[in-house]
Specification:
With about 140 residues, the chain is α/β, with parallel strands linked by helices. The protein contains four helices and six strands; from the N terminus they run E-E-E-H-E-H-E-H-E-H. Helix 3 links the parallel strand 5 and strand 6. Helix 1 runs parallel beside helix 2. The model has no long low-confidence stretch (mean pLDDT about 90).
Length: about 140
């Protein structure tokens, strides 16, 4: 039986007006892990986010990590660094990393930095997970 989803709140800087980041990590079928992130990903949260994403990539028998960023309202340079580090860890582990993003707050930083081409980006989680829906995908 798959492990239940776990919900983590990442603390923001003390006295900051930035929105806290929440991360929900759970199985998405037999071969994928779904990580949903919401809030403002900046210097105060990017390091811990990287740790949680690395854990998702290291999940035994996983073929893909789907990172749902539709709840992200701000993505700082440190957040982009977290995404690149996660992509590199996924490539080293032979795990596919899929991003789910449909809003300017995420897509624009990826585009202006030239990182958009490095990631497989989907408009919704269902599209990202379609390939892994079958238990026979492996």
């Amino acid at each position: 039986m798959a492990a239940p989803a776990r919900h983590v709140a990442l603390p923001g800087p003390r006295g900051s007006a930035s929105e806290p980041v929440t991360v929900t990590i759970g199985p998405a079928g037999r071969w994928a892990v779904l990580v949903a992130v919401s809030g403002e990903v900046d210097l105060s949260s990017a390091g811990q986010l990287t740790v949680h994403l690395a854990e998702a990539v290291a999940t035994p028998d996983v073929l893909a990590v789907v990172l749902d960023l539709t709840g992200v309202r701000f993505l700082a340079a440190s957040g982009l660094t977290a995404l690149v580090r996660t992509l590199e860890a996924a490539e080293a582990a032979a795990v596919e990393l899929h991003l789910v993003a449909d809003q300017r707050a995420v897509l624009r930083p990826l585009q202006v930095t030239g990182l958009r081409e490095r990631f497989c980006v989907h408009p919704d989680a269902d599209a990202a997970l379609a390939r892994y829906a079958s238990a026979n995908s492996r």
